[in-house]
Amino acid sequence: MRSILLLLSLLILMAPLTAQENDSLLVARPLEGEGIWSFLRRHQLDPATHLQNFKKLNEGRFDNNGGLYLHRDYLIPVVLKERKEPLFGAEHETVKPIDDRLKGAVFYLVSGHGGPDPGAIGHYGEQDLYEDEYAYDITLRLARRLMEHQAKVHLIVQDATHGIRPTSWLAPDRSETVQGETIPLDQLERLQQRARVINHLAKKERANYQRCIEIHLDSRSQNKQLDVFFYHHARSKKGRQMAETLRNTLQQNYQKHQPRRGFSGTVSDRNLYMLRQTNPVAVFIELGNIRNFRDQQRFIFESNRQALANWLAEGIINDYTQGQ
């Protein structure tokens, strides 16, 4: 009986680590003569901090003296590191990781208009609302949220003078660039510049999952209330899938947080230049009508701008998960 129990113990010890065990963890084997402390140090972990967690993760995988077995797999906790992005502004430049759910994903985020072109203009009381400023602020918030999940993010339109802003009224300027390049006045030249920069960056990336997301605010008559709606290229199956996933995620969040409100956002195809000319899968997002009072609440309040960014990031995570 004792020999049977010993055999079962050895089988458990030698069993390969399952996929579930491997989630968000590194699997590695010790070198000959390597103890736990040196093994942890080799993987950039402080033994004084991570020893107990390491033992708990690998319970039953140590010899009688508490040492490591050569040729055995061990789980190592992954320590996610903070990153800095000065474009977010001094108060928000430090990005603390939440998890690594978007590790391996690459995004090209494009806020609409900028530089000499403010885009659509709405009026709220005595203030004018400029599309490029609100689209940029929400794009920064989305970028930061994606980075919190360990995504790689390329901000195509950049403004070194404005980071994420807490105020309701976002003052206009012409300081935006396309990654340092002056934004042309001519519309076609602006679009060509953005597509060229995106495609150049995409050539250097090796990620299987790359997405271009363009963010705008629409302009309709003042009495036309709109929910967030999405465009994709007619021939892009993955673009349509992503647009539908984003739409469904926003609908679920509205049902959760405002169950009586309803949601009428749509998904459709458009032959837009940025959808047609960018190589990564692209989705074009219209966040609402900048001239409608009800829609303006979506942009005026900082908490609403952050909620939009959070919900879009949640939808992106859902799309990335489906695509793996």
Features:
elongated, 19% strand, 3-stranded antiparallel sheet, single chain, 15 strands, alpha/beta, 2 domains, 324 residues
Give your account of this protein's structure.
The protein has 324 residues and is α/β, with parallel strands linked by helices. The chain folds into two domains: 76 residues, no CATH class; 241 residues, Zn-dependent exopeptidases (Aminopeptidase, 3-Layer(aba) Sandwich). The chain contains ten helices and 15 strands. The strands form five sheets. Strands 8-5-12-15-13-14 form a six-stranded mixed β-sheet, with helices on both faces. α5 packs across α10 and α9 packs across α10. The chain is elongated and about 75 Å long. The N terminus is likely disordered.
Number of domains: 2
- Helix-and-strand structural type: alpha/beta
Strand fraction? 15-25%
CATH topology of the largest domain: Aminopeptidase
> What's the total count of β strands?
15
- What's the rounded overall pLDDT mean? 92
CATH level-4 homologous superfamily of the largest domain: Zn-dependent exopeptidases
Cα-based radius of gyration, to the nearest Å: 24 Å
Question: Would you spell out the secondary-structure blueprint of this structure?
Answer:
Blueprint: H1 2-14, H2 19-22, E1 25-28, H3 36-42, H4 47-57, E2 74-77, E3 83-84, E4 94-95, E5 105-111, E6 121-124, E7 127-130, H5 131-148, E8 152-155, E9 157-158, E10 177-178, E11 181-182, H6 187-204, E12 209-218, E13 229-232, H7 237-257, E14 267-269, H8 273-277, E15 281-289, H9 293-300, H10 302-323
Parallel strand pairs: 5-8, 5-12, 12-15, 13-14
Antiparallel strand pairs: 1-2, 3-4, 6-7, 9-10, 10-11, 13-15
Helix pairs in contact: 5-10, 7-10, 9-10
